[in-house]
Amino acid sequence: MLLLLAEYLQQFHKGFAVFQYLTLRGILGVLTALSLSLWLGPWMIRTLQIRQIGQAVRNDGPQSHLSKKGTPTMGGALILTAIAISTLLWADLSNRYVWVVLAVTLAFGAIGWVDDYRKVIEKNSRGLPSRWKYFWQSVFGIGAAVFLYMTAENPVETTLILPLLKDVSIPLGLGFIVLTYFVIVGSSNAVNLTDGLDGLAIMPTVLVGGALGIFCYLSGNANFASYLLIPFVPGSGELIVFCAAIVGAGLGFLWFNTYPAQVFMGDVGALALGAALGTIAVIVRQEVVLFIMGGVFVMETLSVIIQVASFKLTGKRVFRMAPIHHHFELKGWPEPRVIVRFWIITVILVLIGLATLKLR
Predict the structure, then answer these.
(1) Any idea which positions bind Mg(2+) (predicted)?
(2) pLDDT tens digits, 190-231
(3) d(Cα 242, Cα 311) in Å, to the nearest integer?
(4) Positive or negative CA dihedral for 349, 353, 358, 359?
(5) What are phi and psi of 170, to 5 degrees?
(6) DSSP secondary structure letter of residue 72
(7) Which of 50, 135, 165, 281 sits at 20 to 30 Å (Cα–Cα) from 312?
(8) What's the rounded Cα separation, in Å, for the pair 139 and 161?
């Protein structure tokens, strides 16, 4: 929106041409989303408290969590608001990638909102039934996959790229739709499972989102893409603005979500952010790198799968409680220790993911 205004004003002063630079608009995207989060955060928390939109806590979980009962939830709406406004202000709105990522994010946020609403407002402990949640996730996931497949302008946009192997690429054809569906829906649910402790999910999301922004910038530049031997995806560089908005909005939310949390993001935030990361990774052809950088999300998801499978097959549990962050809590780790150590793991994994840019 403001990019169009800057382009118009260039005829009066050439200085407005500076807004053409992706790096500047990325920085402005971070600052705008961060400012919005910090500004709107206190008002949103008060509103949630007045309306008694508080978190329900499992009685079979760690006893330390009982004190969290009633803490305002659905704060993910704050994150999505900041991301949407920042993106609409600073991104090139003629770019199809900006719209598909924004649409997926808000669509999955809507699913999470309905789930949270039914749990918190209607006091329905089941929330949105799982079959309907996965149905709508599948609808939006497949919709995004089909759109990206149909609008692909060159073969590399539907080719599987393997990091470390510069001469290996696998044309997917219609398999691209299947892969994209699993990446978007899988990453959405993985972030949702991770969102169980104060700040545990949002900081890895910020780190992975920031790293994906670097991939977007490089993939959208023909010279950098050629030098680094990564796919050149015209137009993907514009997604650095969206990734920057994730970073800014996430850090602003962390201001209120850090231990002890004043607000939780709820499914409205977790499902949306996970889907956003998955969609961006698909666009820049870095699904495998997302799997690496989002290792904490993967670990949380696998712990649930292993726990359920083990109990159904043998009647025994592998972990004291799943997802795995609760396992460490029940072993006696204080909540802040679990959170910070998972953050440290994410930093390491993100650095490994970024290192694949040169290790080819």
Answers:
(1) 192, 267
(2) 999 999 899 999 999 999 999 999 999 999 999 999 999 899
(3) 41
(4) positive
(5) -120, 110
(6) B
(7) 135
(8) 26
Is residue 317 classed as helix, strand or coil in its secondary structure?
coil
- Residue set of the binding site for Mg(2+): 192, 267
Q: Can you say whether the dihedral through the CA atoms of 152, 245, 199, 272 is positive or negative?
A: negative
Residue 119 pLDDT: 85
Q: Tell me: the pLDDT tens digits for 267-281?
A: 999 999 999 999 999
Phi, psi of 298 (to 5 degrees): -65, -45
147 phi/psi in degrees, rounded to 5: -60, -50
pLDDT digits over 309-354, tens only? 999 889 889 999 989 999 999 999 999 999 999 999 999 999 999 9
Task: Report the chain's C-alpha Rg in angstroms.
Answer: 20
The number of residues making up the chain comes to 360
Helix 76-90 and helix 239-257, axial crossing angle in degrees, nearest 10: 150
